[in-house]
Each structure stands twice: as C-alpha cells, then as structure tokens.
Write a structure and sequence with these properties.
Radius of gyration: 20 Å
Strand content: under 5%
Oligomer: single chain
Order of helices and strands: HHHHH
Length: about 130
C-alpha cells in the first residue's frame, strides 16, 4: 500500500500535477518501499520490521522538518503537520502502522509454525 501511494505521489510530483515539489530523491523512497513490499510478499521478517520502522521514521522526520520551519510550534502545529504529512491523514497513518505491526507479527508466527513443522521431520531421533 505504501509503495502504491508513494509511487503515485512521486509520479504526480514529477509530472507537476499534484502540487508537491519534486526532487529526484523521491524515487529512492519509491525504490525502498518497492523492495520492502517485495520482501513482505516473500514473508521476510526482516522486510516486515524494516517497513514498519521505515514508515514510522519517515513520518517522524517529515513532521520534525515541518516543525523546524515554523517559529514557535505548538500542539496544534504538530497535529496539523502530522495530518498533512500522511496521505489520507492521521487515520490512514494509524491504519498503516497497525497493518505493518500485524505484518511483523504474522511473519514471525508464520516462521515459528514453519520451523515447528519442519524440525521434527528432519530430526531422526524423533522418529519411532
């Protein structure tokens, strides 16, 4: 989901159709999200954790940079900055954070079950 939103936002910025200032570094963000999405598709625990951390860090850094540009930011500025930095607002960011946290949990459980089903079959001492 993050890959699709990031790619759409970057393409719109590159074409000048969405009002976002385009920088070539935006394509790096698209690439990182794409690689991590592929890793999650392959059920990689590392990719799931990295996507959760990357998404969270990206939102924190965006808000941090936005607040540094203001003279004396208050709580209303913080909430306004957080709402504008996330595609779809605070609700969308919260939903994506929950989805990524559940993705981390799901990949860990998947690998735990996979390990439990494979290890007894490989061990000759367990066979009677």
């Amino acid at each position: 989901m993050t890959f699709a939103l990031t790619a759409a936002n970057t393409t719109g910025a590159a074409l000048g159709s969405n009002g976002v200032t385009f920088t070539p570094w935006m394509w790096l963000d698209v690439g990182i999200c794409g690689v991590l999405a592929w890793g999650i598709y392959r059920r990689s625990r590392i990719a799931a954790v990295l996507m959760f951390v990357y998404f969270t860090a990206a939102k924190v850094l965006w808000v941090w940079n936005d607040l540094e540009m203001r003279d004396e930011p208050g709580w209303s500025d913080f909430l306004d900055s957080l709402d504008t930095c996330t595609s779809g607002g605070l609700l969308m960011a919260a939903v994506l954070l929950v989805v990524y946290a559940l993705g981390v949990y799901g990949t860990v459980v998947h690998h735990r079950r996979l390990r439990r089903s494979v290890l007894p079959a490989l061990s000759p001492s367990c066979q009677k």
